[in-house]
Amino acid sequence: VLSKATLSKHLFLTTVFLFGLVVSTVLCEVNTADSTSFNHQKSAASTSATCTNESQPHITDDTTSSHQSTNIMSTSSTTSKSYEQDGDEARQIAKYLPYFPFKGIPRFYDIGGFLEKPDVFQQIVDIFVSRYREIGIDSIAGLDARGFILGPPIALALRKPFLMMRKQGKMPNSISSDAYDTEYGKRSGLTVQRDKIKKGDRVLIIDDLVATGGTLSSAINLVHMLGGEVVECACVVELKMFVDPPEDTGLPSRSKLFKSHNINHVPVWGLISEDVLTVEASLPEGYVDDGEEH
Q1: S-S: 264 plus which of 34, 258, 277, 292, CB 3.0-4.6 Å?
Q2: Measured between alpha carbons, how far is 18 from 182 in angstroms, rounded to an integer?
């Protein structure tokens, strides 16, 4: 038989134990509730952040695209800018286009002047990319041979196929245009591979310079032969003196040539004209005009 003192002691210990158990249980429930609340808040914050990101422009994707453009020689923004012939940019670039007496021509403009200046070359590519980004083209055709230099970086920046228009006998499975005349003399027709242009394709033609328009007319005819449409012919330099010269000058007329081929509806654009091409090349002693034709 337990004494009253022993029973009181046991009763006190039992009470303390039960009280501790209740307190422990309550604290556990509070912690659980707090944890659940925190997780809900965290989830809500995450969802909110996700929604916020979705409502904003995809900066990461655009940045990645910009880096990709840089890697393929184009740093143009997605906003197109209108560039005028002989505008501020053209006048700056003209400083790197010296002229030589070559092929019997007093002023032969040499694109090698800007090709050795990466920043200037890049600027030209960017200008063309900006001009044709929104115009809607399916492919870019470069003319033998300088169009092979200018066309590929533009095509890469616009993510468009590049195709070559070459002299005869250079490519398999090709068709040829008729012979044509240039400011240098008579030329056999250009060629393009038959499977490169499909009916309805919108083609941009690229070359370094347009003068009498003979080479461009040949290229335009090739596109039409395969059922394509020429959106525009784009050149770094356009010699306006050949567009529609007075009869008494004896100069060939590009306008008349295009009209005779029924292609006078095709637009031609040049970034720089002879009006601002005033840099005469410094010729070494003993310079000889060893061009092909005179």
Answers
A1: 258
A2: 108
